[in-house]
Amino acid sequence: MNFTRFVGKLSLLILVATVAAIAAPKERITIKGSDTMVILVQRWTEKYPNKQNLEFQVTGGGSGTGIAALINGTTDICSSSRPMKKAEIEQLKEKTGYQGLEVRVARDGLSVYVHGSNKVKQLTIEQVGKIFTGKITNWKEVGGKDARIILYSRENNSGTYEFFKEHVLNKQDFASSAQHMAGTAALINAVGKDPNAIGYGGAAYARNVKALAIAETPSSAFVKPTEKSILSGEYPISRFLYFYLSKRPEGTMKKFIDWVISPSGQKIASEVGYYPIKK
Q1: Between β-strands 179-181 and 150-154, what pairing exists: parallel, antiparallel or unpaired?
Q2: How distant, in Å, are the alpha carbons of 43, 64, 181, 264 from that of 49?
Q3: Sign of CA dihedral 124, 156, 34, 71
Q4: CA dist 195 to 150, 198, 203, 242, 274, Å?
Q5: Which residues of the chain have pLDDT under 70?
Q6: 220 neighbors 173 (Cβ within 8 angstroms)
Q7: d(CA 101, CA 112)
Q8: Rounded Cα distance, 71 and 90, in Å
Q9: What is the pLDDT of residue 59?
Q10: Which pTM value belongs to this model?
């Protein structure tokens, strides 16, 4: 073989290999659900080191929307800020023959927010519940100024909404005056602009608002949502954040989830403003 023919064949091989690499179809992992978790999940997918021939599609819509998509088979992973309900697990099993897999991926403290100028610094869970159910309507009733309390809540397809309703409102309905916001970022923005407002959301979203110290009972200590108090369980409105899958992951999916709960993935959760599942 002369030199010219050798170079020609070598160039052809390189070209074929390059075209094959470009043409290789990318595997896609879809993740849908919690608006609270969107920033965190996006950061995980951006920082995931093994992304060759892999792409992610991350969308919010609320935990309930993500769970419905998992049941209907239109997402690979559901991100949820609340546990799946028994009825939802039964629906998933009926559709897929498998009751699904729950993976705890981070911890969060559900903060109660007010405007930075509000003189109120602390509330009991009972007071918070009475405010959001409309039984307390003026700030002066909880040590603040004489002004009507403006309520901001999440939409009812939100896992944060459901968690707050169950654990703070004791499953009572929100006051009809509550304004329901599409996402935590929108809620925080509204509270940050209104001196008489109150809202709730994940601790990671605390920007330009004040998070109140919360007491579980009138005789309990008031605790602010900090890393220490959330990880220890001392802060009374703490929760896990979840990934749900319709079945046990394999291959690329398993590698991604293993990385999310590894020290590297958990470090990113801390950087975003959430807390690791283990400390």
Answers
A1: parallel
A2: 12, 30, 35, 10
A3: positive
A4: 9, 9, 20, 34, 27
A5: 1-25, 279
A6: no
A7: 31
A8: 10
A9: 96
A10: 0.79
Of 35, 179, 174, 56, the residue nearest 108 (C-alpha): 35
**pLDDT value of residue 203:** 77
In this predicted model, what pLDDT tens digit does every residue of 133-191 receive, in sequence order?
Answer: 999 999 999 999 999 999 999 999 899 999 999 999 999 999 999 999 988 889 999 99
Domains in the chain and their CATH numbers?
Answer: 28-107+240-272 (3.40.190.10), 108-238 (3.40.190.10)
